[in-house]
């Protein structure tokens, strides 16, 4: 069995509001993230998915239950820096994560905070920028780059800490299709080629479909957990929690409702086309 | 049909006369017709934002004309100002532009600037709130207490309250989840129907475009690269991809199917159409 | 839109000798330059200072156009100073008199020098910010002000604040532009009306701008914490500040010029 890097154990969380009323955001979430895996967390706005993400590197602490990062309790203040360098975090708005006016100086920010020696910072900065495909922009001013490029800089800024896991909280929500595709490709490369564990929080079905494992959240709970192909088969279940499924699954599901025999797990364009072809060939051979 | 809003040889150059000079639009002839639901697509930097900001007189053409109901909107200051009310523009992430103490006051900002009397302002605020599904008791609340999705409704209502004949929305569903997206789109449809207004929607989602618009305009490199009904536009799959745009997933699947030697008719771009096409093919083959 | 054209203090990346100097050298050189400017009192000394500035600009490869463009916002101050000096300098050589205003030769001279001085002062400081990335600039300041830490001045925090402020100027300008366009689309009028009306028209602009600035600050703070920021303690630097031969040479050169200008000034030249 693979070792897990993050253990979320029966976590409950509610915000303390001015009126003292505390709406429950997380209502008993238990989740293990295996080292080296690519996990997508899908949920509609207000499902608690971002709150869960913020528990994974001690930005928020659970009101009940425990979160362990590589065995360290996130409530242990002495371990704070170790936790944060193990699990890096990337947010939605790239503009609000970039600290410096020059790309490479921004990427250097985290290693500088960690007291890494200058030559080693240089190596890490170059390496991180190459990992996200932004090395040629190292001397540019971030505000002149596109949204997708800025978000890749933000990812490089986290990679420079050499974390074993990165949690990305809706990193593509503010990007155009080109930016989204670039960011997603970057994330997948980090996972496949560098073995970085990836937790991707999203509400885009097509992004979630590319993960190894898909966790669906609704009303502060985990309502589905499994391979994307399996999870998306429960079309009605997903619709009932305010989510949709990729168009491919939707089509196959509609056809099944019409009594046609098609598989529900043909998720990619290729698989779906293949499934449709087989269907039509079968009909033909029956003639 | 007479266009309600059109541009003639519209060009726009940013930072003219400096080393940063950059042409954003070049000789664009664009037209929108009364009552149509029009979609504009183009990647970031294609010039589409520059184009829509010309349509209601926020940007002044470097050369060429913008005509609203046949009149050049830059004829005089009064005409320009009037055009801003008749061609409503909802920017991207409009919820970040709210500023008033109450939802009611925020929505009434536009109508008040139009110089309408109190009674008319009130009627418009209430009717706009109704279109976007805001409850009466929410009108007295501070907009900053609302959720993100509700704030966006308030912002859209703020433009709808001017009762524009043309409503332009720049990525109205950006960042929303499927439920939020669907409900904003149905709000817009409701306004479209009730007022017989022209809707111009900018979106990156081909699926959303395929489902909602009558006609599509594709902007690329400061010019209109393609236009027509979605079915016509989506036939140019390769060209669209070269422009950094995609085509709907269903169209991609059916193109693949075609490549595999199974042709069940082209011009499929929604799940509904795909389902029909497959069912028809099955029925035909079943009979024959 | 005019707002986007503001270049005030924006860094232009480059590799010239001026770019490569230690930021502390540049800060000190600018201080020396400013002192010398105030010591300059005659055509000769101003000519020397101008030659120094021209040389620095030439070496820095910063386009003169950009420097000139940066001056635009101060035109008003310039005119104001010029007028003040023109009319309020007493002197013997009266050129002409209008009503109660007297213009003397000394006044014209004063006004001229004052304007030149301000222009050169601004050009010099702009050259510093144009050729030094804000982070290096703040690193340099932090290092120069280091001794103040002993008397509990939060030097690191101040430097960090300054660098973040500089980082967010373009972002906020862009945002202001966006909000203004959105409110103009709803009939807001920022251009006409009397002072009260104009001030009122700013409310729809300022409220969202402040709210967004706070939101950004909050998100930035969390993002910084996620990247293990915990104050200046134990921080290392990607670029280490190190004085090299060229730094000493430049400083000595600037000092010599300053002394020369001072001495010439002393002898009334």
Low-confidence stretches of chain B: none
Question: How many DSSP E strands of chain B?
Answer: 10
- CATH names the topology of the largest domain in chain A as Rossmann fold
In CATH, the architecture of the largest domain in chain A is: 3-Layer(aba) Sandwich
Number of domains of chain B: 1
Proportion of residues in helical segments of chain A: 25-40%
* Apparent shape of chain A: globular
Biggest sheet statistics of chain A:
6 strands, mixed
Name the helix and strand elements of chain B from N-terminus to C-terminus, one letter apiece. Answer: EEEHEEHEHHHEHEHEEHHHH
**At the first level of CATH, what is the class of the largest domain in chain A?**
Alpha Beta
Biggest pleated-sheet summary of chain B: 6 strands, mixed
Derived structural class of chain B: alpha/beta
**Rg of Cα set of chain A:** 21 Å
Strand content of chain A: 15-25%
Oligomer: heterotrimer
Structural class determined from secondary elements of chain A: alpha/beta
Order of helices and strands of chain A: EEEHEEHEHHHHEHEHEEHHHH
**CATH homologous superfamily label of chain B:** P-loop containing nucleotide triphosphate hydrolases
Written account of the structure:
The complex is a heterotrimer of chains A (287), B (288) and C (269). Chain A folds into 2 domains: 4-97 and 163-242, P-loop containing nucleotide triphosphate hydrolases (Rossmann fold); 246-287, no CATH class. Chain A has 12 helices and 10 strands. Chain A has helices at residues 49-55, 80-86, 103-107, 109-113, 118-131, 147-159, 177-194, 205-208, 228-231, 235-240, 247-257, 269-286, and strands at residues 4-14, 24-34, 38-42, 64-69, 72-73, 87-90, 165-169, 197-202, 213-218, 221-226. In chain A, helix 5 packs across helix 6 (147-159). Chain A starts with a strand and ends with a helix. Chain B has helices at 48-55, 77-86, 103-113, 118-131, 148-160, 178-195, 206-212, 230-233, 237-242, 249-259, 271-287, and strands at residues 5-14, 22-32, 37-41, 63-68, 71-72, 87-90, 166-170, 198-202, 215-220, 223-228. Chain B is an alpha/beta fold and 288 residues long. The termini of chain B are far apart. Helices cover 68% and strands 3% of the residues of chain C. Chain C has helices at residues 17-20, 23-39, 43-60, 64-71, 75-88, 105-131, 134-144, 155-185, 195-201, 203-226, 245-266; strands spanning 94-98, 101-104. With 269 residues, chain C is mainly α. In chain C, strands 1-2 form a two-stranded antiparallel sheet. Chain C has 11 helices and 2 strands. Chain C starts with 16 loop residues before the first helix and ends with a helix. In chain C, helix 3 runs antiparallel to helix 11 (245-266) and helix 4 packs across helix 6. Chains in contact: A-B, A-C, B-C.
């Amino acid at each position: 069995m693979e070792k897990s890097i993050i253990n979320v154990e029966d976590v409950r969380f509610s915000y303390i509001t001015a009126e003292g009323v505390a709406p429950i955001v997380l209502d008993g979430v238990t989740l293990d993230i295996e080292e080296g895996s690519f996990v997508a967390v899908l949920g509609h706005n207000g499902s608690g998915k971002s709150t869960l993400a913020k528990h994974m590197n001690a930005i928020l602490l659970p009101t009940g239950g425990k979160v362990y990062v590589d065995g360290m309790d996130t409530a242990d203040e002495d371990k704070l820096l170790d936790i944060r360098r193990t699990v890096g975090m990337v947010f939605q708005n790239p503009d609000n994560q970039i600290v410096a006016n020059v790309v490479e100086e921004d990427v250097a920010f985290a290693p500088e905070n960690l007291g890494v020696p200058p030559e080693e910072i240089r190596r890490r900065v170059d390496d991180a920028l190459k990992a996200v495909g932004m090395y040629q922009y190292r001397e540019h001013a971030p505000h002149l780059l596109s949204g997708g490029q800025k978000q890749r800089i933000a990812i490089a800024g986290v990679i420079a800490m050499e974390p074993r896991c990165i949690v990305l909280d809706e990193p593509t929500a503010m990007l155009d299709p080109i930016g989204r595709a670039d960011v997603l490709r970057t994330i997948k490369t980090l996972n496949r080629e560098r073995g970085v564990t990836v937790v991707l929080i999203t509400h885009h079905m097509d992004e979630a479909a590319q993960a190894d494992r898909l966790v669906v959240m609704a009303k502060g709970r985990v309502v589905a957990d499994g391979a994307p192909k399996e999870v998306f088969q429960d079309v009605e279940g997903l619709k009932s929690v305010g989510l949709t499924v990729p168009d491919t699954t939707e089509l196959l599901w509609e056809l099944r409702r019409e009594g046609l025999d098609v598989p529900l797990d043909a998720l990619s364009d290729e698989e779906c086309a293949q499934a449709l072809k087989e269907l039509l060939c079968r009909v033909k051979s029956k003639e | 049909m007479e266009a309600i809003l059109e541009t003639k040889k519209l060009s726009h150059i940013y930072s003219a006369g400096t080393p940063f000079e950059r042409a954003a639009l070049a000789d664009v002839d664009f037209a929108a017709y009364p009552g149509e639901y029009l979609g504009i697509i183009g990647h970031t930097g294609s010039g589409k934002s520059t184009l829509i900001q010309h349509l209601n007189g926020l940007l002044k053409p470097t050369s060429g004309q913008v005509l609203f109901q046949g009149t050049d909107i830059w004829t005089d200051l009064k005409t320009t100002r009037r055009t801003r009310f008749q061609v409503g523009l909802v920017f991207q992430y409009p919820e970040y532009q709210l500023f008033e103490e109450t939802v009611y006051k925020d929505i009434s900002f536009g109508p008040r600037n139009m110089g309408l009397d109190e009674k008319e302002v009130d009627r418009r605020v209430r009717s706009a709130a109704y279109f976007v599904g805001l409850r009466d008791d929410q009108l007295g609340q501070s907009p900053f207490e609302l959720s993100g999705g509700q704030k966006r409704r308030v912002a859209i209502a703020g433009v709808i309250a001017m009762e524009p004949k043309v409503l332009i929305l720049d990525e109205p569903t950006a960042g929303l989840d499927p439920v939020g997206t669907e409900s904003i789109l149905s709000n817009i449809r409701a306004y479209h129907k009730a007022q017989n207004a022209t809707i111009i929607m900018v979106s990156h989602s081909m699926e959303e475009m395929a489902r909602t618009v009558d006609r599509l305009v594709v902007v690329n490199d400061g010019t209109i690269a393609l236009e027509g009904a979605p079915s016509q536009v989506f036939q140019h799959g390769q060209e669209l991809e070269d422009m950094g745009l995609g085509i709907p997933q269903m169209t991609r699947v059916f193109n693949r199917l075609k490549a595999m030697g199974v042709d069940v008719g082209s011009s499929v771009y929604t799940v509904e159409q795909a389902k029909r096409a497959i069912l028809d093919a099955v029925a035909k083959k079943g009979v024959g | 839109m005019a707002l986007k054209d503001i270049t005030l203090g924006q860094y232009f990346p480059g590799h010239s000798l001026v770019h490569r100097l230690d930021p502390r050298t540049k800060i000190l050189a600018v201080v020396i330059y400013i002192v010398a400017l105030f010591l300059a009192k005659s055509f000769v000394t101003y000519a020397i200072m101008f030659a120094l500035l021209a040389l620095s600009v030439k070496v820095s490869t910063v386009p003169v156009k950009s420097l000139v463009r940066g001056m635009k916002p101060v035109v008003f101050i310039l005119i104001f100073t010029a007028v003040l000096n023109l009319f309020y300098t007493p002197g013997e050589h009266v050129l002409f008199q209008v009503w109660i205003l007297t213009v003397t030769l000394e006044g014209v001279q004063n006004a001229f020098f004052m304007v030149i001085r301000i222009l050169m002062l601004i050009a010099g400081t702009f050259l510093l910010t144009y050729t030094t990335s804000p982070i290096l600039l703040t690193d340099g300041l932090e290092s120069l002000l280091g001794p103040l830490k002993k008397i509990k001045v939060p030097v690191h925090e101040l430097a960090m604040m300054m660098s973040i402020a500089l980082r967010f100027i373009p972002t906020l300008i862009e945002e202001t532009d966006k909000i203004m366009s959105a409110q103009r689309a709803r009939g807001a009028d920022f251009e006409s009306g009397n002072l009260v009306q104009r001030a009122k028209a700013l409310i729809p602009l300022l409220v969202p701008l402040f709210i967004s600035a706070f939101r950004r600050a909050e998100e930035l703070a969390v993002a910084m914490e996620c990247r293990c920021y915990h104050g200046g303690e134990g921080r290392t630097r990607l670029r280490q500040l190190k004085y090299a031969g060229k730094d000493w040479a430049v400083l000595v050169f600037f000092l010599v010029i300053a002394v020369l200008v001072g001495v010439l000034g002393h002898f009334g030249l």
